[in-house]
Amino acid sequence: MFPPMKKALTYILFIAVIVGLGALSGVSNMPGEWYQSLEKPFFQPPPWIFGPVWTTLYVLIAIGGARTWLQAPASGRMQVWFMQMILNFLWSPAFFGYQSPILGLVVVIPLLVAILAFIRLSWNADRVSAWLFVPYAAWVTFATLLNLSIAVLN
After folding, report:
1. Secondary structure (DSSP) of 44-89
2. d(CA 134, CA 138)
3. Which of 17, 69, 72, 98 has its CA 20 to 30 Å from the CA of residue 82?
4. Which residues span the domain enclosing 42?
5. Mind listing the pLDDT tens digit for each residue in 89-126?
6. How many folded domains does the chain comprise?
7. Per-residue pLDDT averaged across 1-30, rounded?
């Protein structure tokens, strides 16, 4: 069992790193003129919603990761958590950086699979971590549909 201070530092570190890397990825891969010129589906959310949604999701993802790290740092769950983070941080450069909705799909589909795998692997071991990923799974499902729609429309 970890002492309370070490647990708190683990949560703080996970949240700071994940939110920080998420912000860096967002700032480094701004949509720009290319994205503005694309035809988008009717259900495209307004641009201002992405920042607050992703910040909230990154906090939830980080808490789930910290919980998993504290419980089983060498587990398959932790490996899947790291895999989904890598895919998460690859999506913006793939879609916006390379200006490729198709490459975005190549990243977002395995990302969604990894998120669902984390939920499944966590369900019996740590139901809280599993539930923390449910909003993330819902948003990435929506993002996958949005990405696919943009690819089809353009």
Report:
1. PPPGGGHHHHHHHHHHHHHHHHHHHHHH-TTSHHHHHHHHHHHHHH
2. 6
3. 98
4. 4-153
5. 999 999 999 999 999 999 999 999 999 999 999 999 99
6. 1
7. 92
